[in-house]
Amino acid sequence: MASTKEDERVGAATPLHSGEPGGFDGPASTSAKGAISGQQSHSWLTRKLPFLRTRRGKIITVIVILLIIGGGLAGLAALPKGNNNGGGSSGPNGQAGEAITDDAYFYGQSPDVSPSPNMTGSGTWKDSHTKALALVGKMTLEEKLSLTAGAPSRTGCSGFIPAIKRLNFTGMCLSDAGNGLRNTDFVSSWPSGLHVGASWNKKLARDRGSGMAGEFRTKGVNVLLGPVVGPAGRVVSGGRNWEGFSVDPYLAGSLVAETVSAIQGAGVITSTKHFIANEQETNRMPINDVQSLSSNIDDRTMHELYLWPFQDAVRAGTGNIMCSYQRINNSYGCANSKTLNGLLKTELGFQGFVVSDWGAQHAGVATALAGMDMTMPGEGLWGSQLSTAVSNGSVPETRIDDMVTRIIASWYQMGQDQEAFPSPGVGMPQDLTKPHKIVDARNSTFRQTLLDGAIEGHVLVKNVNKSLPLKKPKLLSLFGYSAKNPDLNNPGGFISPWTFGVSSFNYTEFQDSFIFNSASTPSSRENQSPIAINGTIYSGGGSGATSQSLIISPFDAIVQQAYEDGTALFWDFVAPAPDVNPMSDACLVFGNAFATEGLDRPSLRDDYTDGLIKHVAERCNNTIVVLHNAGIRLVDQFIEHVNVTAVIFAHLPGEMSGKALVELLYGRENFSGKLPYTVAMNENDYGDLLGPDFGRGGGRFEKFPQSNFSEGVWVDYRHFDERGIEPRFEFGFGLSFTTFGYSSLVVEKSGNGTFGEFPTGNIVEGGQEDLWDVLVTVRAEVENKGDVDGMEVVQVYVGLPSSSSGGSEANSESQKTPVQQLRGFEKPSVKAGETASVEFELTRRDLSVWDIEAQAWRLDKGKYVVGVGNSSRKLPLSGEFTI
Ligand code: BGC
After folding, report:
1. Which GO terms describe its molecular function (predicted)?
2. Better pLDDT: 393 or 76
């Protein structure tokens, strides 16, 4: 919550909680909050896992809690005393003084912005707004409130809003997630966000969006709980980075815009999430009397990095935004009036509604006043209590009207009032092991999109001795746990490894971290497995996992190809040090790097897989490494081994994984993926951002863990460029079977070439409308100089006058901008020997910096440097312009 007046308002909201055990009974205090969050997490748990309500479930819960408490006490005893942050960089003044126990200490760190702005019906929302006002006008208060909170249903939807039959409102099913519809049958496993990021293909992102949306729609899902642009990827080992596209805001923003408009074009509302600065899993939830982590961000970093892709999603019309679990500047994400009322609803002119992440509501009145419009998965702290708050004047009824208007307007905006929209949850049975109606949501029109999507997110980073493509090898030897399918692809009642995409991972570890939030200390993290050793992976784990009707593993597809070619195959997917037939034409080693919601990754490499690769490479002079990596994976233990001839980052391709890989390995398709992140040589090269902040080791902030984003905008390549660190593979890098040449750079200013310092336009969805005025156009030609066709990702980077290399003395250190920032990319397909022209439009926003005093995007006078090429460090064309 905005830690100022709103906290006081929570105090004023006593009627909301009076009489409840553990409810608020006065001004916000840590212990009261702890009690509420405990209560919240209990209902969240039992909703996610109803079996916990059974006797057996209760016994299991008690045992697990005792184990966790036991482990926790042991862990605490082992921690060094007096260390504030347990290894993180967080925690201002952490060492001195007594532990802070009252949230009031933090009041004012996140400014209060109120009142909550009403929906205006701007732009394309005019009609939906008018219709929504009319419908809401006919509702009783009770009906209105029924739209603001999740309700039980007989469906398997992640969240459900009941119908109001008398007004022909059909209700709403909200379901996970951004990479495909999870936890049901007859749907597809689409490539995950990171894989789409690695494809750098806007058209593909759009097609994938349409394909996914069709499946959600057929199943009767009104709100697709995705796409993800938060986490952005600040914490290199973040457990959910794979759900989003890229750590670069421009790349993520471009791909989220395509995704949102495609999904919504098919009539399904997108819930772009998690708003905002939700950068790590560790301490994401309150546990006992310890609050969620606070992401402490300055205004400029917020705008230039974290808000940027959300801005693109809002501009693309996203009908819903999900507020996040953690705190922002010490105010909870779903009660933060600065981020919700201020940034989202005022500055970005957001027209849709804000839903809480599941169980992320920790205050009643404060969340209503801060701009949250719907709580999930149950009533949380609203329901009848919100009704009391309206009658005692703590929440004006106009606020309720606006919540409901936004919800109903989004429903109209996507045409969900039409009869053609399937009834909510129609294809989402609660338990797939019980008889249910078959609703086959797959659409064969999108088969090629599934395959192309899988192909294009593979990134080739090493290929020597013409190792690839393979040419009808006589003998292939295959190694590694990630080549084959896990033994289980089967639902198991309401919840099972399958439900959360962890069939290849250790399920106990997953449960401990995802369900019981046990991974909040450095020691718990160290004990986690970095890999999914029981088979290959198609997505990461947790609510963003995918379900599938069919999966093709690398092994499946290689067997098929070997049959066609008459290739002999040997394999050993078990031994850490297998025997190797020295007559093998090539040896393929398959490993993975797993990541899941609820848990930050323990490491960026693992000795087991690296040992296996080195062992095979010692015995096979053509060792090809394929890593399914749900995040950055370091390769320095083997990359320079003379017998490691090819290395592929295979990311998370979805169900077509094996088929896509074989198309690439045998050269029927060309590699065209590029890294959407920087691969360092060593962990230390990422500086303080390698792991999550813990802030739990004692000291003043032990009950309020802190994460200071003091690195500002210097994450990933911005950090490597600034510090002159040589990466192993730079952002934007990826090999092809052909080579491309660049020429004919043209940089041209629009109009008469003079532009005002600040935008002057009205606020439309996404912000001031002239932020998207095209100020400069860049053109270039790219020639395919090899003898095979290929696609090339042509990238444009811009250094602003205030950049580190801009030499502008007028700018102080705090206003310095990165040496270069991605500001355009296109992916033409170029036939061997041919040339393609590409054009990029640089907008006012692309060329501006966020001015914290003016509270606006400022266009500086001075020299702008433009680089064009195929990675952040290979920019053969360079030009400049001045403003
Ligand atoms: C996740 C969300 C998800 C929701 C519903 C939460 O735990 O953070 O991303 O959409 O659950 O399953």
Report:
1. beta-glucosidase activity
2. 393
